[in-house]
Amino acid sequence: MDALVGLIDHLSHLLERVETEVIPMLANLQTIAPDIHDMLDLIQELVDMLGKLPGMGRIKRRADEQQAELEKRPRPSTLGCSRSSGAGPLRQRVTPRTHSTHQLARRRPSA
């Protein structure tokens, strides 16, 4: 009963915080979505341009081989997780990357 009284006492403060912090943040999310789509389009264009560079086929094959090796390795079990695979529904929907810009930057010869 004391917990219920304490909850009711904090309810006005909680409602005030939701109105002043959460609701304005949700309104900002509507303006962020188009920017994210523009960024994804730009990234796709960059990936297409990188794919046309000489030697990228070899780098892509090497990255694919490394990705295949990583996928073959057993994943460590997650504590408190009932699934043994560790791959949730979000992970299954994501298209696997064939290469990353970080991997490409590491392989770039120094001048």
From TrEMBL:
Residues 94-111 have a biased composition (Basic residues). Residues 62-74 have a biased composition (Basic and acidic residues). Residues 60-111 are annotated as: Disordered. This is Uncharacterized protein. It comes from Aeromicrobium phragmitis. The lineage of its organism: Bacteria, Bacillati, Actinomycetota, Actinomycetes, Propionibacteriales.
